[in-house]
Design goal:
Layout: H1 26-39, H2 45-52, H3 60-75, E1 89-94, H4 101-114, E2 121-125, H5 128-133, E3 137-138, H6 139-143, H7 158-164, E4 169-172, H8 180-193, E5 209-214, H9 236-245, E6 250-253, H10 264-275
Parallel strand pairs: 1-5, 1-6, 2-3, 2-4, 4-5
């Protein structure tokens, strides 16, 4: 990072969008090759989710979400370059801590790996810790969004455009930590990263599949307004970001607590604490 708070044009790992090195053993490679043979020539979301669930335990609702996303990806196999003008699949996935939002990310990545398209998935979060837990990178790094807000960029570094080339699925975790201004910048930089005009009316660079996950009861934005708040009328960026937020026409709320499933008393305590309910 340079003194102005911008991300330098360093060599971002281009295959997964993460700065963390990934080591793949020959045994793991052989195992994946064997599993891909089970996929067949005409996979479906239903057939893929069966294979995914052999390795990743998903409950009923999680299975439905992953299957739907994989079905969308299969239907858009030849349109990762953004040239398809089909309707963008925009999904908002909400739920308290412990309901398995990160397991859905794992399931999607595993399913895309089975069809040898894992490189088409990019995963991001607002902070380094949050992004490392899901095998991704911060959106500041992946999109070239300056950490210190100054004049808006009209271009992005070449390494950002290389990273986003051929992507089909964008996944962003910890939505509640993103304020309206950064939401606006993320969309703008998606367009720039996908080689669209800076004033393009495309949402999220025209990516076929866009997924945001989070919980608005957890950490709020460090500065700025959360997405659900009404923006100031004189702030055009925030007004547009609020408009973007309202374009997520598919919303799924996860309810089944997986992390504290064996301790009902503690689970109920956490649920009450989350909403500030008295004992």
């Amino acid at each position: 990072m340079n003194p102005n708070g911008n991300v330098d044009d360093f060599n971002l790992e281009l295959e997964s969008g993460t700065l963390l090195p990934t080591l793949t053993s020959s045994d793991a490679t052989t195992c994946m090759a064997d599993r891909r043979l089970l996929v067949g020539h005409n996979p479906t979301g239903a057939s893929l989710i069966k294979l995914v669930c052999e390795d990743i335990p998903l409950n009923f609702k999680q299975r439905l979400v992953v299957e739907r996303v994989l079905s969308e990806a299969l239907a858009r196999k030849d349109h990762s370059d953004g040239q398809s003008k089909g309707q963008q699949f925009r999904l908002l996935l909400l739920g308290e801590a412990g309901v398995g939002k990160s397991w859905i990310i794992k399931g999607i990545k595993a399913g895309m790996d089975l069809i040898d398209r894992k490189k088409e998935v990019i995963v991001m979060a607002p902070t380094g810790l949050a992004s490392s837990k899901i095998g991704g990178s911060t959106y500041h790094t992946a999109l070239g969004v300056p950490i210190i807000r100054r004049k808006e960029r009209t271009t992005v570094p070449s390494r950002v455009r290389r990273l986003w080339s051929g992507k089909t699925i964008m996944i962003v975790d910890e939505l509640g930590m993103i304020d309206l201004q950064n939401f606006y910048l993320m969309n703008r930089h998606c367009n720039l990263a996908r080689s669209l005009d800076k004033d393009s009316t495309e949402f999220w660079g025209g990516l076929p599949i866009v997924i945001f996950l989070g919980d608005f009861y957890q950490f709020p934005p460090v500065q700025g307004l959360p997405l659900w708040k009404q923006p100031g009328k004189n702030n055009n960026n925030e007004v547009y970001a609020h408009f973007l937020w309202r374009q997520f026409n598919q919303v799924i709320i996860l309810h089944e607590q997986m992390r504290q499933s064996t301790d009902p008393a503690f689970r109920e305590f956490l649920s009450r604490a989350r909403v500030g309910m008295k004992i």
